[in-house]
Amino acid sequence: MRLCLEEVALLTQLHQVNTQTFSWGNHSRRQMSSSLGLFCAFIQSLVLGLTTLHPLASAQQIGLDSILATDSASMAGANGELPVAPCAQLGQTRTGATASDTTGQASTQAKSSPVPASQKQPKRILGLMPNYRAVSAGEVPAPPTAKEAFMIATHNSFDYSAFVFTGLTSLIAEGDSAHPQLGKGVPGFWAYSWRGFVDKTDGNYWVIFALPTLFHEDERYYAMGKGSFWKRGWYAASRVAVTPDYHGHNTINASELLGRGIAQGISTTYYPQQDRTAGDLASKYAYALLRDAATNAFREFWPDISVHVLHRNP
Question: Under the phi-then-psi rule, with left for phi > 0, alpha for psi from -120 to 50, and beta for the rest, what region is 80?
């Protein structure tokens, strides 16, 4: 690599001596200027490519650039009409592309309008219910990354309120003997509790993280914030079947519909055999979708409840 650069520098210096020694016509000088510009572009592109593979040559590249700049300046002094070198044009093109990318990012961020305090979706409702999936009306955030989706699923699954909710539903199921084979009393309550927790956690990671990352779907709930009660209620409930993709276009909510189904299929491995019938699975699947639809509706109307009933901002 060092030998190659030294040879290029030597040839360039010899070329400079020749141009100072011989007197050429204007036509020959223009041809030489053009050829030198192309030669400059070729050599610099070659050196840039080689230095990418061999970082130790970066210092030698600086020396070569100064030699080429000196040679070009001498030709400009002799002719006075040296065109913009292709190397410089390449740098200007890259600078322009970077500027346009920055402008595009700024315009995307500018789509979100300020949200009044009375319509903001809190991260937690009443200090108990996690609300990490909700987006306030009027906000247009960037699509969630895989890491962000994973963290939302983790917050929803291991938040302290998740254990409270699982405990209450398990207590009700044990009292009603929803699965008689699981028993009664403390052993029965424990049998219901861990199964309920696995149901919830398994479903969260499928619906919020794994499948949305695969299908490029945004599983956050985008609040409507205004409109009639029925319009907003229907919109909230329908989000279990419709969701935006990473480009903001509505699409079938495959993550929700398939994710809940996959979770129910997995649950057949730890529930009693008597409860693995198609009817039981369909009933649990429908319950999971209705629960998510009801949760979306509660998220939609919570700012109104907080302002008009509790007389405070959400």
Answer: left
Give 240's contacts (C-beta < 8 A, 6+ positions apart).
253, 256, 257, 289, 292, 293, 296
DSSP string, 123-179: SEETTTEE-TTEE-TT--PPPPPHHHHHHHHHHHHHSHHHHHHHHHHHHHHHHHTSS
Size (the chain), residues = 314
Q: Is 250 helix (H, G, I), strand (E, B) or coil?
A: strand
Residue type, 139: E
Fill in the amino acid letter for 31: Q
CB 211 within 8 A of CB 255: yes
CB 130 within 8 A of CB 161: yes
Cα gap 3→6, rounded to integer Å: 5
Note the pLDDT tens digit of each residue in 248-287: 999 999 999 999 999 999 999 999 998 889 999 999 999 9
Q: Is the pLDDT of residue 119 over 60?
A: yes
Q: Which residue has the tokens 């409702």?
A: 125
Query: Residue written as tokens 């490029």?
Result: 216
Task: Give yes or no for a contact between 125 and 302, defined as CB atoms under 8 angstroms apart.
Answer: yes
Among positive and negative, which fits the CA dihedral 213, 289, 232, 300?
A: negative
The closest alpha carbon to 131, from 159, 104, 172, belongs to 159
Q: What is the DSSP letter of 208?
A: I
The CA distance from 131 to 288, in Å, is 17
Question: Element (H or E) spanning 242, and its range?
Answer: strand 242-244
pLDDT value of residue 247: 93
Phi, psi of 156 (to 5 degrees): -65, -30
**Tokens 């794994």 found at:** 210
For the chain, the straight-line distance linking the first and the last C-alpha, in angstroms and rounded, comes to 65
